[in-house]
């Protein structure tokens, strides 16, 4: 076989591989609804994306190979020449389609991007500044999915196999995921189709099983949506795993969202350094970064941002790292500096939620260039990270102290309530005892009067006895009176004993009542000291 025949076969192979990676650019955007305004705030995202060109996944995605397939092609003889030949031929074919896409592709340095595909690591090490310049101009849309996998080193057959297995397992988050699917890029036709929603659901569900600590968190569906617009679902899952682990986004989606809080702290400090006037104005107006920037960092600017800007952010972050989000946030604030300084609280919130990205509508590449315009040393970020960790630890300690004080206060309140209840019970018992003692004293007075009466009768009887000393009837009456008197004396003795016992009990109750009063005063004093 001749050398020309070899080249022809190699180019045919390259052509077939290249066709597998091609992703069409579509401007089909679903029109706005005229009357339905009942949707959530997610529907406002569509207003920001309808002016931007969006990508529609290739119908032959199932044929798309992984980055590993690209690496195998590198070993083909004259690979660099073949890919350049193919890219030039593809460019000529595009002349027939549209003048605008033609202009975009004519401005693209296909030779450089072919070099990136063949040896990305070497270019980064030897010609990084040139690579950054090309990155600022934008990654070719047809190569974006392939390059994202290459940048993130996401090719992993084992992980793809794991993904396929996870699809067959149930997830406890399925209802939440299904609920948020219609809110993900509602103006993009692909995500309004059954196929698009199924793939979006598959990737998010699989990740919720893959990382159970993260599970499902709102914001992930925007990341996955951007990935699915450029690559098949298996590759999107692998890139998502890399973004979470290698790029450190995972801690933004854990229950405590530690990394998100740290990044918000870093952003506020950087804002005070680079844009002090804006920082001071926002601080005076009471507009905190958490009111507008948290959604930028959670979704990598995919929420309410034109997609061409979002894809540029992904391009840079997958090369430079997640910390570059801070550069984009600062660039966005600086670009809108004069507008921000002219607005007050409510207008600022409305502006951040709807119009902050308008300045880049006609210059999407300017977003990347402006982001690169901020020099944020890694040492500064590390210093801010340590400062945040120290403040967070201090706040955690204060929170623990506050929780302990609240717990102790609750216990004291319970003790106070218990003692107050016991005091009320004792007070009732005391009142009952006083009442009973009063009744006994009244009864004692009555019995004393009866006793005196009986004594008088006894004296009279004795006088009668002296007169009728020998009469039998007198004797019987005397015996009866003697028995009655003995009975009264016995009853009087019992009442005297009962009175003595009640008086003793009264004294004890008064002493216990005094102790309870004293203890109650001590508890109130401690409670007041705790409150102070």
UniProtKB/TrEMBL annotation:
<feature type="coiled-coil region">
    <location>
        <begin position="391"/>
        <end position="429"/>
    </location>
</feature>
<feature type="region of interest" description="Disordered">
    <location>
        <begin position="28"/>
        <end position="51"/>
    </location>
</feature>
<dbReference type="InterPro" id="IPR035969">
    <property type="entry name" value="Rab-GAP_TBC_sf"/>
</dbReference>
<keyword id="KW-0175">Coiled coil</keyword>
<feature type="domain" description="Rab-GAP TBC">
    <location>
        <begin position="138"/>
        <end position="321"/>
    </location>
</feature>
<dbReference type="InterPro" id="IPR000195">
    <property type="entry name" value="Rab-GAP-TBC_dom"/>
</dbReference>
<feature type="coiled-coil region">
    <location>
        <begin position="478"/>
        <end position="526"/>
    </location>
</feature>
<dbReference type="InterPro" id="IPR050302">
    <property type="entry name" value="Rab_GAP_TBC_domain"/>
</dbReference>
<keyword id="KW-0343">GTPase activation</keyword>
<dbReference type="Pfam" id="PF23436">
    <property type="entry name" value="RabGap-TBC_2"/>
</dbReference>
<protein>
    <recommendedName>
        <fullName>Rab-GAP TBC domain-containing protein</fullName>
    </recommendedName>
</protein>
<dbReference type="GO" id="GO:0005096">
    <property type="term" value="F:GTPase activator activity"/>
</dbReference>
<dbReference type="GO" id="GO:0031267">
    <property type="term" value="F:small GTPase binding"/>
</dbReference>
């Amino acid at each position: 076989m001749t050398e020309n025949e070899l080249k022809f076969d190699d180019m045919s192979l390259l052509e077939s591989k290249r066709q597998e990676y091609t992703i069409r650019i579509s401007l089909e955007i679903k029109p706005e609804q005229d009357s339905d305004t009942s949707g959530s705030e997610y529907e406002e995202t569509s207003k920001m994306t309808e002016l931007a060109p969006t990508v529609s996944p290739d119908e032959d995605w199932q044929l798309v190979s992984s980055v590993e397939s690209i690496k195998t092609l590198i070993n083909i003889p004259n690979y660099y020449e073949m890919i350049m030949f193919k890219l030039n031929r593809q460019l000529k074919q595009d002349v027939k389609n549209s003048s605008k896409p033609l202009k975009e592709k004519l401005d693209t340095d296909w030779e450089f991007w072919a070099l990136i595909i063949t040896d990305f690591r070497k270019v980064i090490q030897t010609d990084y500044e040139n690579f950054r310049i090309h990155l600022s101009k934008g990654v070719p849309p047809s190569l974006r999915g392939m390059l994202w996998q290459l940048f993130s080193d996401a090719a992993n057959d084992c992980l793809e196999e794991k993904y396929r297995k996870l699809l067959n397992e149930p997830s406890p988050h399925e209802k939440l995921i299904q609920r948020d699917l219609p809110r993900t890029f509602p103006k993009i036709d692909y995500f309004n189709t059954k196929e698009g929603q199924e793939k979006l659901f598959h990737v998010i569900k699989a990740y919720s099983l893959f990382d159970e600590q993260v599970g499902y968190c709102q914001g992930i569906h925007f990341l996955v949506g951007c990935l699915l617009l450029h690559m098949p679902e298996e590759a999107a899952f692998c890139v998502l795993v890399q973004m979470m682990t290698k790029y450190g986004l995972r801690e933004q989606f854990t229950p405590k969202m530690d990394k998100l809080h740290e990044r918000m702290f870093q952003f506020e400090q950087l804002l005070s350094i680079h844009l002090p006037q804006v920082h001071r104005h926002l601080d005076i107006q009471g507009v905190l970064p958490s009111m507008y920037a948290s959604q930028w960092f959670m979704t990598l600017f995919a929420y309410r941002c034109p997609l061409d800007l979002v894809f540029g952010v992904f391009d840079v972050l997958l090369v430079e790292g997640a910390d570059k989000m801070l550069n984009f946030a600062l660039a966005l604030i600086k670009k809108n500096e004069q507008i921000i300084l002219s607005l007050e609280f409510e207008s600022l919130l409305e502006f951040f939620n709807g119009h902050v990205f308008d300045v880049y509508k006609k210059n999407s590449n300017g977003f990347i260039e402006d982001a690169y315009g901020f020099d944020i040393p890694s040492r500064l970020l590390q210093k801010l990270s340590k400062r945040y960790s120290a403040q967070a630890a201090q706040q955690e300690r204060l929170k623990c102290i506050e929780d302990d004080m609240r717990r102790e206060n609750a216990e004291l309140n319970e003790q106070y309530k218990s003692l107050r209840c016991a005091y009320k019970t004792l007070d009732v018992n005391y009142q009952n005892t006083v009442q009973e003692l009063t009744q006994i004293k009244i009864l004692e007075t009555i019995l004393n009067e009866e006793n005196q009466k009986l004594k008088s009768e006894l004296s009279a009887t004795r006088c009668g006895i002296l007169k009728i000393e020998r009469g039998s009837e007198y004797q019987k009456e005397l015996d009866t009176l003697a028995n009655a008197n003995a009975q009264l004396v016995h009853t009087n003795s019992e009442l005297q004993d009962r009175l003595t016992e009640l008086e003793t009990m009264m004294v004890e109750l008064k002493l216990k009542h005094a102790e309870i009063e004293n203890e109650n005063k001590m508890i109130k004093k401690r409670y007041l000291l705790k409150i102070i």
